Amino acid sequence: MQPNNTSAVICRNCALYQTARVLGLETPDCSSLNRIVLRNHPVRKNEVLYHEGEPFRYLYLIHSGSCISNATMLGNSHRVMGFYLPGEIAGIENIGQETCNHTTYALEKGSICQLDFAALEGTLSENELINVQKYLLGSAAHHARQLQWERSLTGLQTAEQQIAAFLMNIASRLDARGFPAHQFRLPMSREAIADYLGLAMETVIRTLKNLQSRNLIDIKAKNIEILDESRLNSLLAS
Amino acid sequence: MQPNNTSAVICRNCALYQTARVLGLETPDCSSLNRIVLRNHPVRKNEVLYHEGEPFRYLYLIHSGSCISNATMLGNSHRVMGFYLPGEIAGIENIGQETCNHTTYALEKGSICQLDFAALEGTLSENELINVQKYLLGSAAHHARQLQWERSLTGLQTAEQQIAAFLMNIASRLDARGFPAHQFRLPMSREAIADYLGLAMETVIRTLKNLQSRNLIDIKAKNIEILDESRLNSLLAS
DNA sequence: CGAGATGTTGACGACCCTCAAGTGCAGTGG
DNA sequence: CCACTGCACTTGAGGGTCGTCAACATCTCG
């Protein structure tokens, strides 16, 4: 068997690598987590990670690809609750309750790590458990800050500001994991963006086109390039 | 000194009581937390718990009264980020970073418990620490779910739906801590509600008045009574 | 009691949603 | 290779909701 260099490199982009480091492992191959981690598992487009209402047990660390979360609202309508990009942890908001309250599935082909959260306690030493919990607590708090910031953007602002904020948000999250932040692919449909932001799909399209005509961004289908980050940012300062 | 019955009773309404239980204490007086907890500390109206940018160290468990969080946005404008009601934990979203990113102050006279988060690790036994971390992780995840739900309400809906959702949200949070959920006081100003929801203050006022004229709620100044919960809920199912 | 903060009401206009028609593109089968 | 079908996306016209502005009322507290 050849040395596991490739997955080691991939692992650096993902939250699991951080988790491994917290465990006191210096080797990035995460070997001593193998009992509770399903590593580098491929997922197909539209493959569901977890269903709304099913018992909560696993956290999913996105290696590559991206995911979308949907939830059922009052009146049985559905709503896009969020997106997970490479390196992020899907399912962390389920901690502390019996069942999952979103349905999360892959937007494109990719790979994930599956971490058996329920088995953490029985598997790790007390010291290891403290470190993993500390790490997850930090991640959950980070997630909450992220949501708080996003919540503060919706409603008050114009559609243009919301779209700009959405793009900057995706860019900064990609940047945080070492991916190119000025040229990337929006894996979700225009409709999903609209649903997520609470706008009409037509407004999303018109606004993107308008930003393009002013040379702030360049879009071709799902591929986006941020041409003038500072002007895009200054749109948010109202 | 007389037995500490009153604060023991108060303590049942607050997150600290839960924290004490996780620590394995059967007595609700939280006595063995005293080294890291400042208990039942009175706060005046407008008294600041923590400032944006100052080092993060404490969690604040609201005994009585309520708090509001503000944050500085791009362009030095300010925005209401959230409210904390009795029994909730202010500051939990700061975990994992060096500094606080909101300014949080009391909306009215009340009392709080201050928990020295930084000193948790050195003070508690490994087993106790695991339990406290587990509890805080659950609280942070709960907070994230709450924010996710709130985020999903803003933007898509009409002003009326947002106001209705806001009222139901406050009511359910009060209900969760054993307070009356159909008749309560809105401790924050109309302007703060508007800012929080991303609406104009005038819209908040007009919408509340409209709900009142349809006998869904009754308002006198800051005192609100929910007259028809089911119809109020059905507004959300669009 | 007076002054500033907070809350209320009305008129008008902009932004964005709705509805509807049309375009481009991917996958399928002939 | 080309129609065909379905879906995502695009574009246009019209109307409703809510923000802005301004005047006024009420509350709070020294």
Mean pLDDT of chain A: 86
Specify which chain pair forms the largest interface.
A-B, 50 and 51 residues
Oligomeric state, counting identical vs distinct chains? homodimer
CATH topology of the largest domain in chain A: Jelly Rolls
Shape of chain A: globular
For the largest beta sheet of chain A, what order do the strands appear in spatially?
1-8-3-6
CATH architecture of the largest domain in chain A: Sandwich
Which stretches of chain A of 5+ consecutive residues score pLDDT under 50? 1-9
Give me the number of helical elements of chain A. Answer: 8
CATH homologous superfamily heading of the largest domain in chain A: Jelly Rolls
Order of helices and strands of chain A: HHEEEEEEEEHHHEHHEEH
CATH class of the largest domain in chain A: Mainly Beta
Instruction: Compute the CA-based radius of gyration of chain A.
Output: 19 Å
Please describe the biggest sheet of chain A, giving its number of strands, its sense, and whether it closes into a barrel.
4 strands, antiparallel
Strand content of chain A: 15-25%
Q: How many domains of chain A, as an integer?
A: 2
Number of strands of chain A: 11
